[in-house]
């Protein structure tokens, strides 16, 4: 598996919560998404992260279509736990029952056009840990049946991550990690238990790319950020200037050795721990090329990481 995965949330396209809250990244061009996945494959990216609810199923379909005959060359990760209505592109609730896990997996396999998922992730980050232990055992059944190779929990809570990690085929925790939002306990847990630390929002949802300004289109989750999404203004005008100031303070280090800011943000993650696997989102071939290009430039140095901690007052 490549040291870098590609996050397929944005390419799922628009979808929303029952109250109208946008949950996608606005409009996307499916043909460009497919071209971007192809370019990533050509550049050596072998890990793709999606979820059944991204675009209420559309994201998995697009990824399956883009991978085509190259499916077996890559690690495909998806997630379950949210319930959705594809006709209205709306998330309608959640379901943490074992019966639903099996139904969701069957549907994901069909949309992805594959007979197995390489990494199956529980998407409900704050779910009941007792319930989750049952689901972990269900994942073991999926492994025995050959439907799933490995599994993990997408959660920012180390205690919950540890519940899933107790399973023999648990290999990863997906959690938020980027240069502005460190997660020391989760990184420590992944190092101790020898799990992959799969890093969502590695570019702080675009804040770290040096290009994200505003205003944002109404279908973009960042135009009406939920409580768990800091760094963007509530009125759709774009990035919070205080966050951009912090990004600006890091620019010189992140752009060292000819890196773009996005490449620098990924380089910080690789320096953070040998277990990290960032999964930056993308919508275009140009973003795919730039993000895949980070691999060759490698991690920041320990001195650069220390300087970043100093600049951010950590
Ligand atoms: N488990 C979960 O609950 C969960 C939650 C969040 C994310 N994730 C996963 O993590 C992945 C990545 O996280 P994320 O989507 O939150 O955000 P991210 O990777 O931090 O930021 C992605 C965004 O940054 C911009 N971008 C990417 N590459 C760029 C480049 N080279 N130059 C300029 N801009 C660039 C694009 O936004 P523009 O639209 O501005 O072009 C892109 O959509 C997701 O796709 C998903 O697979 C999982």
Notes on the protein architecture:
The chain is an alpha/beta fold and 314 residues long. The protein has a single domain, classed as NADP-dependent oxidoreductase domain (TIM Barrel), CATH 3.20.20. It has 10 helices and 11 strands. Helix 1 crosses helix 2 (58-67), helix 4 packs parallel to helix 5 and helix 5 runs parallel beside helix 6. The radius of gyration is 18 Å and the shape is globular. The model has no long low-confidence stretch (mean pLDDT 96). Bound molecules: NADP nicotinamide-adenine-dinucleotide phosphate. Residues 7-10, 25, 49, 123, 154, 174, 200-206, 209, 211-212, 262, 279-283, 287, 290-291 line the site of NADP nicotinamide-adenine-dinucleotide phosphate. Residues 4-311 form the NADP-dependent oxidoreductase domain. Residues 209-235 are annotated as: Disordered.
In short:
39% of the residues lie in helices and 16% in strands.
Write the layout of secondary structure elements.
Blueprint: E1 6-7, E2 16-17, H1 30-42, E3 47-49, H2 58-67, E4 75-80, E5 82-85, E6 90-94, H3 98-112, E7 117-122, H4 129-144, E8 148-154, H5 158-165, E9 170-176, H6 184-193, E10 196-200, H7 241-254, H8 261-272, E11 276-278, H9 285-297, H10 302-311
Parallel strand pairs: 1-3, 2-6, 3-4, 4-7, 7-8, 8-9, 9-10, 10-11
Antiparallel strand pairs: 5-6
Helix pairs in contact: 1-2, 1-9, 4-5, 5-6, 8-9
Bound molecules: NADP nicotinamide-adenine-dinucleotide phosphate.
NADP nicotinamide-adenine-dinucleotide phosphate binds next to helix 9.
């Amino acid at each position: 598996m490549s040291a870098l995965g590609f996050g397929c949330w944005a390419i799922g396209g628009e979808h929303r919560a029952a109250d109208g809250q946008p949950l996608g990244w606005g409009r996307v061009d499916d043909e460009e998404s497919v071209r971007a996945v192809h370019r990533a494959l050509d550049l050596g990216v072998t890990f793709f992260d999606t979820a059944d609810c991204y675009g209420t199923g559309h994201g998995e379909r697009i990824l399956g279509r883009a991978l085509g005959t190259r499916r077996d060359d890559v690690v495909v990760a998806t997630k379950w736990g949210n319930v959705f209505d594809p006709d209205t592109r709306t998330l309608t609730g959640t379901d943490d029952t074992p019966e639903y896990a099996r139904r969701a997996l069957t549907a994901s396999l069909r949309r992805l056009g594959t007979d197995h998922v390489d990494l199956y992730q529980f998407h409900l980050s704050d779910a009941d840990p007792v319930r989750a232990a049952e689901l972990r055992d269900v994942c073991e059944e999926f492994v025995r049946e050959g439907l799933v190779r490995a599994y993990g929990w997408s959660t920012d809570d180390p205690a919950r991550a540890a519940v899933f990690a107790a399973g023999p085929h648990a290999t990863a925790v997906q959690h938020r990690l980027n240069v502005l939002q460190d997660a020391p306990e989760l990184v420590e847990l992944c190092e101790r238990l020898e799990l992959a630390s799969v890093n969502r929002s590695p570019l702080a949802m675009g804040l770290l790319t040096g290009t994200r300004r505003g205003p944002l289109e109404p279908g973009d989750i960042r135009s009406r950020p939920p409580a768990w999404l800091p760094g963007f203004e509530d009125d759709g005008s774009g990035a919070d200037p205080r966050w951009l100031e912090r990004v600006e303070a890091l620019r010189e280090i992140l752009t060292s050795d000819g890196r773009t800011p996005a490449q620098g943000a990924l380089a910080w993650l690789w320096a953070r721990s040998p277990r990290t696997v960032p999964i930056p989102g993308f919508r275009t071939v140009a973003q795919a090329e730039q993000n895949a290009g980070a691999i060759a430039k490698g991690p920041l140095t320990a001195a650069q990481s220390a300087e970043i901690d100093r600049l951010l007052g950590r």
